[in-house]
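**Folding the chain**
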Amino acid sequence: MQTILYATDYSKNSVAALLYANSLCYKLNAKLLVLHVFDHPMSLATKVSLAYLKKEQELFEVHKMKLEAFCYEHLKDKPIVTNRQVIAIENRSSTDGILEAIVSLDPDMVVVGTKGGSALKELLLGSTATGLIKKAPCTVLTVPENTTLVPLHTLVYATDFEDADIFAIQQLVKIAEPFEASIKIVHITTKDEYEEDRQVAWLQKMLEQKVDYKPMDFERILSENILEALHTYIERSDVSILGMLERDDGSLIRKLMHKDLVIAMESYLTIPLMCFKVGGL
Protein backbone atom coordinates (compact mmCIF):
# COMPACT_ATOMS: atom_id res chain seq x y z
CA MET A 1 0.00 0.00 0.00
CA GLN A 2 1.67 3.17 -1.22
CA THR A 3 -0.88 5.99 -0.89
CA ILE A 4 -3.74 6.71 1.52
CA LEU A 5 -6.18 9.56 0.87
CA TYR A 6 -7.85 11.08 3.92
CA ALA A 7 -10.76 13.48 3.41
CA THR A 8 -11.92 15.97 6.04
CA ASP A 9 -14.47 18.74 6.52
CA TYR A 10 -12.49 20.02 9.56
CA SER A 11 -15.20 18.68 11.88
CA LYS A 12 -14.78 16.77 15.12
CA ASN A 13 -16.11 13.58 13.57
CA SER A 14 -13.20 13.51 11.11
CA VAL A 15 -10.41 13.68 13.72
CA ALA A 16 -10.38 9.96 14.59
CA ALA A 17 -10.16 9.14 10.88
CA LEU A 18 -7.10 11.41 10.57
CA LEU A 19 -5.39 9.59 13.43
CA TYR A 20 -6.04 6.23 11.78
CA ALA A 21 -4.87 7.46 8.37
CA ASN A 22 -1.69 8.85 9.90
CA SER A 23 -1.01 5.67 11.89
CA LEU A 24 -1.51 3.45 8.84
CA CYS A 25 0.75 5.61 6.68
CA TYR A 26 3.46 5.59 9.34
CA LYS A 27 3.41 1.82 9.76
CA LEU A 28 3.04 1.06 6.04
CA ASN A 29 5.51 3.76 4.99
CA ALA A 30 2.83 5.15 2.70
CA LYS A 31 2.15 8.64 1.38
CA LEU A 32 -0.64 10.54 3.17
CA LEU A 33 -2.83 12.82 1.09
CA VAL A 34 -5.01 15.15 3.19
CA LEU A 35 -7.97 16.44 1.19
CA HIS A 36 -10.69 19.03 1.68
CA VAL A 37 -13.48 19.62 -0.84
CA PHE A 38 -14.92 23.13 -0.72
CA ASP A 39 -17.79 24.77 -2.54
CA HIS A 40 -17.35 28.20 -4.09
CA PRO A 41 -20.88 28.87 -5.37
CA MET A 42 -21.39 30.90 -8.49
CA SER A 43 -24.84 31.78 -9.80
CA LEU A 44 -25.69 31.35 -13.46
CA ALA A 45 -25.83 35.13 -13.75
CA THR A 46 -22.27 35.54 -12.50
CA LYS A 47 -19.63 36.08 -15.14
CA VAL A 48 -16.30 34.33 -14.77
CA SER A 49 -14.17 37.40 -14.18
CA LEU A 50 -10.55 37.86 -13.19
CA ALA A 51 -11.77 38.93 -9.76
CA TYR A 52 -13.74 35.69 -9.39
CA LEU A 53 -10.78 33.57 -10.49
CA LYS A 54 -8.53 35.43 -8.06
CA LYS A 55 -10.99 34.81 -5.23
CA GLU A 56 -11.14 31.13 -6.18
CA GLN A 57 -7.35 30.84 -6.10
CA GLU A 58 -7.29 32.55 -2.71
CA LEU A 59 -9.72 29.95 -1.41
CA PHE A 60 -7.43 27.13 -2.56
CA GLU A 61 -4.57 28.66 -0.59
CA VAL A 62 -6.75 29.37 2.45
CA HIS A 63 -7.94 25.77 2.61
CA LYS A 64 -4.41 24.41 2.20
CA MET A 65 -3.35 26.49 5.20
CA LYS A 66 -6.39 25.30 7.15
CA LEU A 67 -5.49 21.69 6.34
CA GLU A 68 -1.93 22.21 7.55
CA ALA A 69 -3.23 23.77 10.77
CA PHE A 70 -5.77 20.94 11.22
CA CYS A 71 -3.03 18.32 10.83
CA TYR A 72 -0.69 20.14 13.21
CA GLU A 73 -3.38 20.49 15.87
CA HIS A 74 -4.31 16.80 15.89
CA LEU A 75 -1.02 15.15 14.89
CA LYS A 76 1.57 17.25 16.75
CA ASP A 77 2.26 14.49 19.29
CA LYS A 78 1.81 11.59 16.82
CA PRO A 79 4.40 9.74 14.71
CA ILE A 80 5.51 11.92 11.80
CA VAL A 81 4.62 10.85 8.29
CA THR A 82 7.30 12.55 6.25
CA ASN A 83 5.53 12.09 2.93
CA ARG A 84 2.37 14.13 3.53
CA GLN A 85 0.59 16.46 1.15
CA VAL A 86 -2.46 18.71 1.60
CA ILE A 87 -4.88 19.15 -1.28
CA ALA A 88 -7.91 21.43 -1.69
CA ILE A 89 -10.34 21.01 -4.56
CA GLU A 90 -13.60 22.69 -5.47
CA ASN A 91 -16.81 20.76 -5.99
CA ARG A 92 -20.41 21.31 -4.96
CA SER A 93 -20.60 17.69 -3.80
CA SER A 94 -18.15 16.38 -1.20
CA THR A 95 -18.62 12.83 -2.47
CA ASP A 96 -18.08 13.79 -6.12
CA GLY A 97 -15.05 15.86 -5.16
CA ILE A 98 -13.46 12.96 -3.28
CA LEU A 99 -14.23 10.58 -6.16
CA GLU A 100 -12.65 13.06 -8.56
CA ALA A 101 -9.55 13.11 -6.37
CA ILE A 102 -9.48 9.30 -6.24
CA VAL A 103 -9.49 9.14 -10.04
CA SER A 104 -6.67 11.66 -10.41
CA LEU A 105 -4.53 10.62 -7.43
CA ASP A 106 -5.11 6.83 -7.56
CA PRO A 107 -4.81 6.06 -3.82
CA ASP A 108 -4.89 2.51 -2.49
CA MET A 109 -7.30 3.49 0.28
CA VAL A 110 -9.55 6.40 1.21
CA VAL A 111 -10.25 7.17 4.89
CA VAL A 112 -13.23 9.21 6.11
CA GLY A 113 -14.92 9.86 9.43
CA THR A 114 -18.50 9.11 10.38
CA LYS A 115 -20.68 10.90 12.89
CA GLY A 116 -21.29 9.39 16.30
CA GLY A 117 -20.90 5.70 16.99
CA SER A 118 -23.21 4.34 14.32
CA ALA A 119 -21.36 4.20 11.04
CA LEU A 120 -23.82 1.80 9.42
CA LYS A 121 -26.79 3.99 10.37
CA GLU A 122 -25.13 6.90 8.60
CA LEU A 123 -24.51 4.67 5.58
CA LEU A 124 -28.23 3.93 5.46
CA LEU A 125 -29.20 7.58 5.66
CA GLY A 126 -27.00 8.49 2.73
CA SER A 127 -23.69 10.19 3.39
CA THR A 128 -20.30 10.82 1.91
CA ALA A 129 -19.25 7.43 3.30
CA THR A 130 -22.17 5.76 1.53
CA GLY A 131 -21.28 7.32 -1.79
CA LEU A 132 -17.65 6.31 -1.46
CA ILE A 133 -18.44 2.72 -0.52
CA LYS A 134 -20.78 2.44 -3.50
CA LYS A 135 -18.62 4.22 -6.06
CA ALA A 136 -14.97 4.38 -5.02
CA PRO A 137 -12.75 1.93 -6.94
CA CYS A 138 -10.43 1.50 -3.95
CA THR A 139 -10.68 0.27 -0.36
CA VAL A 140 -12.71 2.58 1.92
CA LEU A 141 -12.09 2.86 5.66
CA THR A 142 -14.81 4.62 7.67
CA VAL A 143 -13.92 5.61 11.24
CA PRO A 144 -16.60 6.51 13.82
CA GLU A 145 -16.13 9.84 15.58
CA ASN A 146 -15.58 8.42 19.06
CA THR A 147 -13.13 5.70 18.06
CA THR A 148 -9.94 5.71 20.14
CA LEU A 149 -6.77 5.04 18.18
CA VAL A 150 -5.02 1.90 19.44
CA PRO A 151 -2.37 -0.28 17.81
CA LEU A 152 -4.14 -2.72 15.52
CA HIS A 153 -4.21 -6.15 17.14
CA THR A 154 -7.21 -8.07 15.76
CA LEU A 155 -8.70 -7.62 12.30
CA VAL A 156 -11.94 -9.46 11.55
CA TYR A 157 -13.03 -10.25 8.02
CA ALA A 158 -16.70 -11.21 7.62
CA THR A 159 -16.95 -13.61 4.71
CA ASP A 160 -19.90 -14.78 2.65
CA PHE A 161 -17.70 -17.05 0.52
CA GLU A 162 -17.06 -14.81 -2.49
CA ASP A 163 -14.18 -15.60 -4.84
CA ALA A 164 -12.95 -12.04 -4.25
CA ASP A 165 -12.60 -12.78 -0.51
CA ILE A 166 -9.16 -14.25 -1.25
CA PHE A 167 -7.94 -10.98 -2.74
CA ALA A 168 -9.57 -8.87 -0.02
CA ILE A 169 -7.88 -10.95 2.68
CA GLN A 170 -4.56 -10.56 0.87
CA GLN A 171 -5.01 -6.79 1.16
CA LEU A 172 -5.96 -7.14 4.82
CA VAL A 173 -2.76 -9.10 5.46
CA LYS A 174 -0.71 -6.18 4.08
CA ILE A 175 -2.28 -3.99 6.76
CA ALA A 176 -2.09 -6.54 9.58
CA GLU A 177 1.52 -7.60 9.06
CA PRO A 178 3.32 -4.37 10.10
CA PHE A 179 1.21 -4.29 13.28
CA GLU A 180 1.73 -8.03 13.90
CA ALA A 181 -2.06 -8.22 14.19
CA SER A 182 -4.09 -11.40 14.00
CA ILE A 183 -6.79 -11.95 11.39
CA LYS A 184 -10.01 -13.75 12.22
CA ILE A 185 -12.20 -14.85 9.33
CA VAL A 186 -15.81 -15.19 10.41
CA HIS A 187 -18.87 -16.53 8.63
CA ILE A 188 -22.26 -16.07 10.27
CA THR A 189 -25.02 -18.28 8.96
CA THR A 190 -28.67 -18.88 9.79
CA LYS A 191 -28.51 -22.47 8.54
CA ASP A 192 -26.46 -25.42 9.73
CA GLU A 193 -25.79 -26.90 6.33
CA TYR A 194 -23.16 -29.33 5.06
CA GLU A 195 -22.62 -27.14 1.99
CA GLU A 196 -21.36 -24.29 4.16
CA ASP A 197 -18.88 -26.64 5.85
CA ARG A 198 -17.54 -27.38 2.39
CA GLN A 199 -17.30 -23.65 1.63
CA VAL A 200 -15.31 -23.03 4.81
CA ALA A 201 -12.95 -25.86 3.86
CA TRP A 202 -12.60 -24.40 0.35
CA LEU A 203 -11.74 -20.94 1.68
CA GLN A 204 -9.21 -22.36 4.13
CA LYS A 205 -7.52 -24.36 1.39
CA MET A 206 -7.38 -21.38 -1.00
CA LEU A 207 -5.90 -19.15 1.69
CA GLU A 208 -3.29 -21.75 2.61
CA GLN A 209 -2.22 -21.75 -1.04
CA LYS A 210 -2.33 -18.00 -1.68
CA VAL A 211 -1.85 -16.21 1.64
CA ASP A 212 1.28 -16.72 3.72
CA TYR A 213 0.21 -15.35 7.09
CA LYS A 214 0.15 -17.51 10.20
CA PRO A 215 -1.84 -15.48 12.79
CA MET A 216 -5.12 -16.23 10.99
CA ASP A 217 -8.00 -18.48 11.97
CA PHE A 218 -11.61 -19.24 11.03
CA GLU A 219 -14.89 -19.39 12.86
CA ARG A 220 -18.39 -20.24 11.66
CA ILE A 221 -21.21 -18.96 13.85
CA LEU A 222 -24.77 -20.26 13.71
CA SER A 223 -27.31 -17.54 14.48
CA GLU A 224 -30.74 -16.37 13.36
CA ASN A 225 -29.62 -12.75 13.75
CA ILE A 226 -26.54 -11.94 11.67
CA LEU A 227 -26.09 -8.44 13.08
CA GLU A 228 -26.43 -9.46 16.72
CA ALA A 229 -24.05 -12.38 16.27
CA LEU A 230 -21.43 -10.22 14.58
CA HIS A 231 -21.81 -7.53 17.23
CA THR A 232 -21.33 -10.08 20.02
CA TYR A 233 -18.31 -11.57 18.29
CA ILE A 234 -16.69 -8.14 17.84
CA GLU A 235 -17.16 -7.27 21.51
CA ARG A 236 -15.94 -10.66 22.71
CA SER A 237 -12.87 -10.62 20.51
CA ASP A 238 -11.84 -6.99 21.11
CA VAL A 239 -11.69 -6.25 17.38
CA SER A 240 -9.66 -3.34 15.95
CA ILE A 241 -11.19 -3.22 12.45
CA LEU A 242 -14.05 -5.03 10.72
CA GLY A 243 -13.45 -5.83 7.06
CA MET A 244 -16.12 -6.66 4.47
CA LEU A 245 -16.43 -7.13 0.76
CA GLU A 246 -18.72 -4.67 -1.01
CA ARG A 247 -20.19 -5.40 -4.40
CA ASP A 248 -23.30 -4.46 -6.36
CA ASP A 249 -25.32 -7.52 -5.42
CA GLY A 250 -25.69 -9.96 -2.60
CA SER A 251 -22.84 -8.83 -0.33
CA LEU A 252 -22.87 -9.29 3.42
CA ILE A 253 -22.99 -5.54 4.01
CA ARG A 254 -26.27 -5.42 2.02
CA LYS A 255 -27.74 -7.97 4.41
CA LEU A 256 -26.59 -5.97 7.42
CA MET A 257 -28.13 -2.81 6.01
CA HIS A 258 -31.63 -4.32 5.75
CA LYS A 259 -34.22 -1.83 6.99
CA ASP A 260 -35.38 -4.18 9.75
CA LEU A 261 -31.99 -3.79 11.40
CA VAL A 262 -31.93 0.01 11.61
CA ILE A 263 -32.75 0.15 15.34
CA ALA A 264 -30.09 -2.44 16.14
CA MET A 265 -27.54 -0.48 14.12
CA GLU A 266 -28.13 2.57 16.30
CA SER A 267 -25.65 1.29 18.86
CA TYR A 268 -23.84 -1.24 16.72
CA LEU A 269 -20.61 -0.17 15.07
CA THR A 270 -18.08 1.67 17.22
CA ILE A 271 -14.99 0.40 15.39
CA PRO A 272 -13.62 1.26 11.95
CA LEU A 273 -15.23 -0.49 8.97
CA MET A 274 -13.00 -1.39 6.01
CA CYS A 275 -14.84 -2.08 2.77
CA PHE A 276 -13.04 -3.81 -0.07
CA LYS A 277 -14.45 -3.29 -3.55
CA VAL A 278 -14.55 -6.16 -6.04
CA GLY A 279 -13.57 -3.84 -8.88
CA GLY A 280 -10.63 -2.45 -6.91
CA LEU A 281 -9.04 -5.79 -6.01
Q: What stands out?
A: Residues 50-75 form the longest helix (26 residues). Residues 231 and 268 are 7 Å apart (CA to CA).
